[in-house]
Design goal:
alpha+beta, ATP Synthase, domain 1, Single alpha-helices involved in coiled-coils or other helix-helix interfaces, about 140 residues, globular, 8-stranded mixed beta sheet
């Protein structure tokens, strides 16, 4: 297929996606990055967010949790801690994770003796939960 590149999303557990795409937009650490076929070789750090990609069937999204993207030849490899398609996301679980993170950040969640609230971890957990919910919402439109 002319004008395509291979998109591989790789997590520690599995290859979450391996497909031919016409374009990809990844959540770069410094902003969104667009990648088309014949892109120059590149390595970029990723942020948590939605990976958008266009195939012959239309546009789709996938939740990714940080990592990096590498373009080499006609292949884009995204290595991430978590890569989930909207149909793989448990929306109720994501909402529960959001609530737990908000409670931790507000200091209303009971903590064990000597346990300190790690605000940075709670903020990251909140961002992941919200992006997962956004992926589900995006796919249902």
């Amino acid at each position: 297929m002319a004008g395509t590149l291979t998109l591989r999303v790789i997590t520690p557990e599995r290859i979450a996606l391996d497909t031919l795409v016409q374009s990809v937009r990844v959540p770069g650490a410094d902003g969104s990055l667009g990648i088309l076929p014949r892109h120059a070789p590149m390595v970029a750090a990723l942020d948590t967010g939605l990976l958008h990609f266009h195939t012959a069937d239309g546009e789709a999204v996938m939740f990714v949790s940080g990592g990096f993207a590498e373009v080499r030849g006609e292949t884009l490899r995204v290595v991430t801690e978590a890569g989930e398609r909207p149909d793989e996301i448990d929306e109720a679980r994501a909402k529960e994770a959001e609530q737990r993170a908000r409670e931790r950040m507000a200091g209303t969640r009971p903590l064990g003796e000597g346990e300190a609230v790690d605000l940075a971890r709670a903020e990251l957990a909140l961002r992941r939960a919200l992006w997962r919910q956004r992926a589900v919402e995006y796919s249902s439109q």
